[in-house]
Automatic annotation (TrEMBL):
Chain residue ranges for the region called Disordered: 26-57, 80-145
Similarity-based family: Belongs to the 'GDXG' lipolytic enzyme family.
Name of the protein in its database record: Alpha/beta hydrolase fold-3 domain-containing protein
Domain Alpha/beta hydrolase fold-3: 155-405
Highest taxon of source: Eukaryota
Pfam assignment, any one: Abhydrolase_3
Compositionally biased spans, kind Gly residues: 127-136
GO molecular function: hydrolase activity
Length: 440
């Protein structure tokens, strides 16, 4: 069972959340604001930090002039190393230290050398981290060794918060995305989608798809820039792109270090609903998104529901942190009144007419918690994927609650860190360059 501290904090958390939801229901605006909001005034926000002080640099970008849609990019310092092949055998005793605590050492991973101590040793010894002691600006520094800059996969991340709260730059989401960027050795793009009730369905879903299309546009613009003059003329060509395309400018961090052909969608709670929607749209769009390729998705305790209750929805209706009654309030704030249904395509992934056949979906890892009332429906969705031969494992964590790996008060727990490591091990099966890539 969860600890006494978790139980007490859950009571306090639910009291505050219920109060906020009821206030928003009573004071909801008559007309929605197309610009919308992506974070609440009471949210603790972590400022962007372009230096590699903890191994990850971050920057914020507002990518849509018509809405508040924004992203935060997390760039791990492993991107500054020359491109190289991983060793064929794991280094015995290899372990990497996070700033908060030791991570558990995983032995049977898909990638032999997932955790390497070289970056940590260099920082601890006061060595130079690729020439980036200060803020990292973009294409510099020059690659070393064989002259090839390391290209990293891209993880598109959608935060949780029950549609009405949370943000991509919150303290908790910032810590979680930094952890994912380090463990997966990937560029993480956290999406700041519009919140309800100011912007109801399908605003958040449209924002998720818009970011995926933005990644495709960025990749094409970067390739265009490269063909127009090569690396030495990049800054001049970048100015030309700005003048010609306006807001669609080349993002240097992604252009220099991102490989969009290895893109993973990662959704947390209601963000998992967005990730699943974006994955379906990516399947429908197909090659029109080239060179972006969604190779896998991770659904962390997805916010699924349906009109026919499952066993966990009955047995655990009053579960920790997010009980069923409060989640019903969140759904009423998110779905338009005329469309409200627990079998709405945004709520129930197995509702008829939801989208493309499940057999076309990318490999899908589902993370569930033992004490979460949403667990059974998430497991049922995973089972349906496996029936049509989609790689869709379920990782269930004992004595865990909803958002156990992403909630601020639980982020430093050993279980949260092990969960992130487990995700990284599975994800590396599909983002490696070993011929495992999923194809539509």
């Amino acid at each position: 069972m969860p600890s006494v501290a978790v139980k007490l904090y859950s009571v306090f958390f639910k009291f505050l959340l219920k109060h906020r939801l009821q206030n928003r229901i009573q004071g909801r605006p008559e007309d929605s604001d197309p610009f919308g909001v992506t974070t609440r005034p009471d949210e603790s926000v972590a400022p962007a930090n372009p230096s590699f002080s903890d191994g990850v640099a971050t920057k914020d970008i507002h990518i849509d002039p018509l809405t508040s849609l924004s992203i935060r990019i997390f760039l791990p310092d492993s991107a500054l190393e020359p491109n190289s092949q991983p060793s064929s055998k794991p280094e015995p005793g290899s372990v990497n230290h996070e700033t908060s605590s030791l991570r558990a050492v995983r032995r049977n991973s898909y990638e032999p050398a997932i955790f390497s101590p070289r970056e940590e040793e260099r920082r601890n010894s006061g060595g130079d981290s690729g020439g980036c002691g200060g803020a990292y600006r973009g294409y510099a520094p020059s690659p070393a060794g064989n002259g090839r800059r390391k290209k990293l996969p891209v993880v598109l991340q959608f935060h949780g918060g029950g549609w009405v709260s949370g943000s991509n730059d919150s303290v908790a989401n910032d810590v979680f995305c930094r952890r994912v960027a380090r463990l997966c050795e990937a560029v993480v793009v956290a999406v700041g989608y519009r919140l309800a009730p100011e912007n109801r369905y399908p605003a958040a879903f449209e924002d998720g798809l818009k970011v995926l299309n933005w990644l495709a546009k960025q990749a094409n613009l970067a390739e265009c820039t490269k063909s127009m003059g090569g690396r030495r003329r990049l800054e001049g060509q970048h100015k030309h792109i700005v003048e010609t395309f306006g807001a669609s400018v080349v993002e240097p961090w992604l252009a220099a270090h991102g490989n969009p052909s290895r893109c993973v969608l990662l959704g947390v709670s209601c963000g998992a609903n967005i990730a699943d929607y974006v994955a379906r749209k990516a399947v429908e769009t197909g090659t029109l998104l080239d060179p972006v390729k969604v190779v896998a998705q991770v659904l962390m305790y997805p916010f699924f529901i349906g009109s026919v209750p499952t066993r966990s929805e009955i047995k655990l209706a009053n579960s920790y942190f997010y009980d069923k009654a409060m989640c019903m309030l969140a759904w009423k704030l998110f779905l338009p009144e005329e469309e409200f249904s627990l079998d709405h395509p945004a709520a129930n992934p197995l509702a008829p007419g939801h989208g493309p056949p499940l057999k076309k979906m990318p490999p899908t890892l589902t993370v569930v918690a033992e004490h979460d009332w949403m667990r059974d429906r998430a497991i049922a969705y995973s089972e349906e994927l496996r029936k049509v031969n989609v790689d869709a494992p379920v990782y269930e964590y004992k004595d865990a609650v909803h958002e156990f790996a992403t909630l601020d008060v639980l982020l430093k727990s050993p279980q949260a860190q092990v969960c992130a490591e487990d995700i990284a091990i599975w994800v590396k099966k599909y983002i490696s360059l070993r011929g495992h890539e999923f194809s539509y």
